[in-house]
Structure formats: C-alpha cells, structure tokens
Amino acid sequence: MLKALNPITKLFVCIIWLTAAVLVFDARFQVACIVIPALALIVFNRTSPLLLLALMVPFALFGLGFLTTSLLFRQESDFALRMAGESLFATPAFSAGITLFLRAIACGTISVFFALTTDPGAAVRAFMVYCRLPARIGYSLFAAMQLVPDLASEAQQMRLARAMKSGRPPRRFPGPVELFSLVIPLLAFAIRRAGRTAIAMEARGLSPDAPRTVLNAPRFGRGDLIFALVAIVVCGLSIGAGSSILR
Amino acid sequence: MTSEPRLPENPPAAEWRGVRVRYPFAKRDAVGPVALEIRRGERVLLLGPSGSGKSTLLLTLTGLIPQSIPAEVDGSVRLFGSDAHARKPWAWAADVAQYFQDADQTLCGMRVEDEIAFALENRAMQPALIEEAVASAMERVGLPEDWRKRRSSTLSGGERQLAALAATLVQNAPLFVADEPTAHLAPEAAGRLHALLTKAEPDHSILIVDHRLDGLIQAIDRMVVLGKDGTLIAEGYPRAIFREKRELLMSLGIWCPASTALDAALAQAGIAPPIAPLSVEEALAHLDPASTSLDRIERARPAVETFVAERSARPVVTTTNPSLMARLTGADCAPFLGPTILRNINLAIHEGEILGILGANGAGKSTLGACLSGVLALKGGTRSGAPGGLAFQRSENQFVADTVREEMLTALPKRMAEDEKRRRVADAFARWGLTDFEGHHPFELSQGQKRRLALAALTIGENWPLLVLDEPMAGLDAHGASTLTAEILALREKGRAIAIISHDMDLALKLCTRCIIVGEGRLLADGPTETLLSDPQLLKRAGLAEPSCAPARRWLQQVAAC
Q1: How far is CA B203 from CA B40, B41, B221, B270, in A?
Q2: I need a labelling partner for B351 at 20 to 30 A (CA). Which of A187, A213, B193, B332 fits?
Q3: B165 and B181 together in one domain
Q4: In chain B, how many domains are there?
Q5: Closest residue to A161, CB basis, from B123, B398, B413
C-alpha cells in the first residue's frame, strides 16, 4: 500500500516530519516520530519489527553518543556531584540528552520509512519527471542507490575468495578485522562498478541534455493526497499533544 | 553464403584506417595497426587469441576509447562515412548497438524491462512504441514475462547475458557489435541467439567476436583474424580460412569449428569434402553410407573414429571403491540472500572423478556448485566430506592481490620455502601463458587472461581435494582451453575430484565420465555423459544440445549397421 504512493509525496511528508523532529525539542514528540512511522511500516508495509529494530541499531548508537556527551560534558554539570546526588536522571542534562537520543532514532525511523517503501528506480523517475532532475544526475543517484544492496553480495564473494586463498572454509559471520579489511576492496568495487555503469549508459545513448522519454514514472493519485493530509494532521496533533502535556 | 556486393557510393558501416591503441603506462600497443572495414549488410566474425585486442578494437568504434576509457589512439575510425570521433559516444547509440564482453558493462542494474527500454527512452521515443519494442525484444530473446520486474543484478550470469542482449537488440541499430554474446548461454539459448544475431538484413551489419563457432559460422559472410600482436593476419571467407590457414589458427590458439579437424583428417585420408565444411554434417555429406562406395567408407572410418575418440572422455581406471569426496543429502540450495532454487538434491562425488554439472541458464548450477564445494551453506539437508575450492564464474571475484605475481604467490601455503614458491609460480606462469603479465594488476588483463589467472591460482596450491570450476572455458582461447584440459586431467590423476559447471557439451563429453543435469528446481538426470547427451528428449527438456561430434557418432553407427 505505502509502496504504491508517489515517492515525491512520501519525500515531502518525510521532510515535514524530519523538520519537525529537528525543531521540536520534546521527548514525547520524538517518541511519536518513532512510533507512528514504525507502526505504519509494520501495519501497512508488513515490515518485520525485528528488521526495524536491527535497522535502528546504528541510529541508536549515534544517539547514545549525544546522550553520553550531554551527561558527561555539559558545562554546567559537575559529574562527581551528580553521581553522588543520586538524581542524575531527573537533571536537565539527562532530559536534553534523552531528547537528542530519541531525535537520532526518530530521524532514522523516518528515513527508514522512506527507504523501505520506495523503489529507487521509481523515485529517480519521479524526480526526473516532476522535479526536472537532469537524467545524468538522476541515473547517477540511481546507480548509487542500487549499489548498496549489491555491496553485501560482493563482500560475500570477496570473503569466499579470501577463504579459498587461505585454504580454509569461510567463517559463517565475519569478524571486525575481516570486515575492516573489506572496506578498501569494496570501495574499489564501487568505483569500478560506477565506471562500468557510466560506460553502459553512455553506450546506450544517455546524453547530458537531449530530451528523453521516461517510462513507468509514478503518478499522483487520490491516495497521495489522503496520505499527505493524514500525515501532516497527525504530525500537528503530535506536536500539540506534546506541548499541552508539557503545560 | 556471402552478401551481395555493395554499391560503391555506400560508405562502409564501419572502417578502421591504420588504427593502433596503447593504454596508459603500457609498453606495447594493445591492438594495431589495423585497417578493416565492415560493409553494409555484412556479417563479420572477428577472431583472435586471448589478449589480441579484439575488445579494445571494438571500443574504439564509437569513441568510448579514448573519450571514456583513456588510451592513445592513432589512425582514424569512421562510421557510416563520418569520423567516429566527431560525435560523442552517446550520439552513436541510434546507429551502433554495442554488446560488451561482460554483461555487467552493458547493463546498469535496473529492472529488466527498464534496462531494455533505456536506449529507446534516450531516443525520446513514444512510450507506446517503447512498450511494444520491449515486449518484442523480450519475446525474441526468450525472456519470460515474469522477469520484467527483476533487477538485472539479481540474475544469474547467463540470464544477465540474455537481458543484455535484449537491451542491445531493441536498439535495432544498423550496426550491431557483439563481444562474446553467448559465452555464458546454455546451448539452446545460444543457438536461438546466433540465429537472431545473424539474420540476414540488407541494411544491418554485424560485427561479432565469439569463440563459440558451431552454429554461428554458417551465417558469417567474412572473417577477420587478429594475431597475438594485435595486427591483422587473415581476412576472407570462413570456409577458405579454416581450410587453408588451419595450422596458423591452431598455432595461435584460435578456436576453429569442430568440422575443421574432421576436414583435415579426411583430407589426410584422401577423401576431403569437395567444399570446405563448416559443420560436421557438411564434412560427412559426401560420405553418405547408403550411397558411397565401401572403399571410401573404409578410408573414412578411421579418421571419423579418431575424431570422435578425441572428443570423448577416456575411460578411467579406478579402484573398486574410490573414496567419497563430498556428498549432498536432501540438500536445499539457495544463492546468498536469495530464495531456495533447488530442493532435495542427493549427489556424491568421488576421488578421481570429473563430474559435469549441466543445465539451462538460471537452473541453479552455480548455486549447486557452491553448495557442493561447501562455500555456500545449505538451506536444508546436509553436506558431508572434504571442503572444496571454487573457481567463480566471474574471474574478477576471485582476485584479492594487487599484482598477478602476488595473486599466485598468496595461493601457495605460507610455510612453503621461498625458492619452491618462486619455482612453482614461474612454472605456472609458463604453463598458463602469463609470464608477460607478472607485474600487472589482475584487473588490467583481458577476460581470457583473467580466467587463466583465476584457474592457475586455484590449482597451483594443493589445498583442495575437491575443485568446482564454474564455466571454466568461458572467454578462454583454444590454447587456454587446452592448458586447462591438461591441468584438469592431471588433477584427476592425483586423485582430486573435480566438478565442472559448463554450457559446453563438447567439453562435458571430453572430460566428464559422469554428468548431472539440473532443471525444474531439481536434478533431472544423473548418469554417464555419453548416455545423457544422446537422449534428445532430455536435452530438449533441459535446454541443452547435442555435442558437435554427435553427427559423426551417428555416421559411425550407420556405417556399422550397413
């Protein structure tokens, strides 16, 4: 259902929610920014909650950085005193830290909402048709987006090749050292792949400025209007609810 | 067999005048000097040993070299009478459709229908016309409708090649350039593609590089041969060249059709076919057992017997109970992060055995090979036995070092003495013809050279009692193929078990005493290669074809029955 919406509508809604998440410094609103997109993904997109949790790990680690920074390095906080005072969790520093932590996850959830419900090809086509994105830039973006899922299988091939070189079967899961050692070869792969894609596109006539047809571009429908209105209203209500609770 | 003479006012479709190409930092030219023209409506085959610069020459055609791939180019290239470099490469797309050697160089990672439509979208064609052309191209190439939404990068090697061919054929350009378009295709698909590519159309010219000549060569008007140094060494009608220059072609490691060897053997017996043959049927057409004198038949028989014997696996002297090397029991196999495509596979491979794994494109051969070697975990069932080494279908995936020499050295055990390492590497370089490339980065090599390096690195060490080779002959010239054949037989002598995934029925018949055929999500057959490859119904069901020597085998049976 969410996949059928026009990517531009989803991007517009996501930008509004992201802007609100950045501007509204309220932990309750940040929770709403996490829960509402997550519920929408689980209910309407049948996304596994486990997958969502896994995808949130990097954002949670990033947010944890904000939390610890605001607790330990806030100018007005005297760490030793706070620790001794047993009221650390009631301090403004903690409150600010937790809001920043939730904001990182909220931004992550909204981004994941867009990524999991949008076909990269359809998004690029929509941008080219409705936002007049030049085809060269559009297809470069497209190639970059397509590269992400392919990196996993390329990394697996590299692991197999290395295991065979060393004469031992590959480990089921790579360790941190092995993962780190794959970074440069994967970067080289990405560069090679980008070069080949550029040549493939050029050989098939992709020009910098000539007019071109764009097939299968997503269209706007009534669903887009309903989705945008509901999303904006829910966003407004969440902000309002947060501020009334605060009062 | 030849095209009609062209009107003199018609400029050639493509023309190279004294063209030579040298890549940055290279010590010698990659190709040239070459003077060559492709006339309108002509179907030209370009042959040459691995590394002779065939692909480089094709890339100069629309200016991709030097405009997108840096290189120094001398001489002039003309397309339809105009200077090829006067336009940007993309501006030639309506006139020249290019299928590159690696399907990944042709595809962009989109969904299949978008890949096919891409070139027509760039021409700003009407959407309805594009839809029609896409459907037609898919039908001509034989792509199922349910592939439309699949991403090209999730397809198997052969499937990608089919999608890439559809994406270039849809351009309907007056010049079609194809660099090894059938290297990874199953025989039935390759036959269909050869027929499509070589359909005679007066306004369409074709320049094709392919090692797979049987089934293609009959439709070729003219062939051009490059030597090892990248210069032109022969040019003319295929029949004449394969008969008159056979020794030269063989000495350079250039593939010839199977009929060439039979023609030579029959000539030696004093009963050469009146016209130089391009197929085994043609070679034996003048020796119909029903109407030819017994004397001629008796003179021909030893030659034909030798021809067939050289293309069949030699019986192996095995111990009564060869030890089991690996076994799959009730195995469900799936590619990495993909769905299960083969179910309930029961398969065993023994010491000293060469097993062929055959099947149509996308049947799951590579996945099965990876599971058999143990590098890919099973989705269900069990695998027991020794770990195996796997030669990937794309050689590039196998390279982990920065130079060819290092690639080989790192394949040897760390504890081995340095002198011994050096000796073994030098020996392998000489055997595989890689001596001149020791200091090169593996990615700088040609496709055939990359394949040789990958196989040399896998076989130089003695790490693996079981080896799985995924389409090992793809991209190899005849010398490389012959080296690999000798290497495989030597490994078998040492008691290694080898599984070969291949679309080459001649190779399967020559090397594998036993084959399995994969299809319909399971094993369709498991048995002696000769038996399986003589079962027309099974071959049709699996999208395979009989080996090229099959008509000779039938001829011998007819003779025996007379």
Answers
A1: 6, 5, 14, 42
A2: B332
A3: no
A4: 4
A5: B398
Helices (H), B253-364: 258-268, 280-284, 294-310
* pLDDT (tens digit per residue) in A137-156: 888 888 887 777 778 878 88
**Residue A138: helix, strand or coil by DSSP?**
helix
* B121·A197 Cβ contact <8 A: no
Given B172, B200, B216, which residue is the final one in a domain? Answer: B172
Q: How far apart are the first and last CA of chain A?
A: 38
Alpha carbons B382 and B369: distance in angstroms, whole number: 15
**Bridging pattern class, strands B82-83 and B232-236:** unpaired
Residues B514 and B486 in one domain: yes
User: How many C-beta neighbours within 10 Å does residue A233 have?
Assistant: 10
Look at residue B378 and tell me if it is in a domain.
yes
- Higher pLDDT, residue B403 or A177: B403
**Which pLDDT does position B183 carry in this prediction?**
80
Quick one: closest CA in B to A184, which residue? B400
Burial class (CB in 10 A: 0-12, 13-18, 19+), B487: buried
Nearest to B68 among A142, A165, A202 (CB): A202
- Coil, helix or strand for B18? strand
Domain residue extents for chain A: 2-123+219-246, 135-203
Interface confidence: ipTM more than 0.90: no
Q: Which of A74-88, B77-91, B408-422, B515-529 has the lowest mean pLDDT?
A: A74-88
> Containing H/E element for B243?
helix B238-244
| pLDDT (tens digit per residue) in B430-473 | 888 888 888 888 888 877 788 888 888 888 877 788 999 998 88
**Could you give the residue ranges of the DSSP H alpha helices within B61-216?**
64-67, 103-106, 112-122, 127-141, 157-169, 187-197
Rg (CA), chain B: 24
A104 Cβ neighbours under 8 A, 6+ residues apart:
A59, A60, A62, A63, A66
Rg of chain A over Cα atoms, rounded to whole angstroms, equals 23
Q: How many helices (H) and strands (E) does chain B have?
A: 21, 19
**Statement to judge: residues B148 and B124 lie in one domain:** yes
The B residues from 380 to 399 touching A (CB cutoff 8 Å) are 387, 389-390, 392, 397-399
For chain A, the helix, strand and coil percentages under 3-state DSSP, each to the nearest 5: 80, 0, 20
When CB atoms are compared, the residue of B93, B411, B443 closest to A203 is B93
Is B5 within a domain? no
Measure B118 CA to nearest chain A CA, in Å: 7
User: Does the beta-carbon distance from B392 to A150 stay under 8 Å?
Assistant: no
Query: Which B-chain residues 167-186 have CB contacts (< 8 A) with chain A?
Result: 167-168, 171
- Asked if A71 contacts A83 with a C-beta cutoff of 8 angstroms, the reply is no
B157 and B178 part of one domain: no
Domain boundary among the residues B130, B157, B172 is at B172
Check whether residue B270 and residue B372 sit in a common domain.
no
Partners of residue B77 on adjacent β-strands? B16
Answer whether the bond into residue B144 is a cis peptide, omega within 30°.
no
Partner A, chain B 105-134, Cβ-Cβ below 8 Å: 105-111, 113-114, 117-127, 130-131
CA B8 to each of CA A31, B12, B39, B40, B221: distance values in angstroms, whole numbers, following the listed order: 78, 9, 10, 11, 18
Instruction: Convert the pLDDT of each residue in B238-293 to its tens digit.
Output: 999 999 999 999 999 899 999 999 999 999 989 999 999 999 999 999 998 888 88
Whether B349 maps to a domain, the answer reads: yes
Of A146, A154, A210, the CB nearest to B109: A146
3-class DSSP assignment, residue B20: strand
Q: Is B445 among the domain residues?
A: yes
Sequential DSSP letters for B415-440: TS-HHHHHHHHHHHHHHHT-GGGTTS
B63 shares its domain with B30: yes
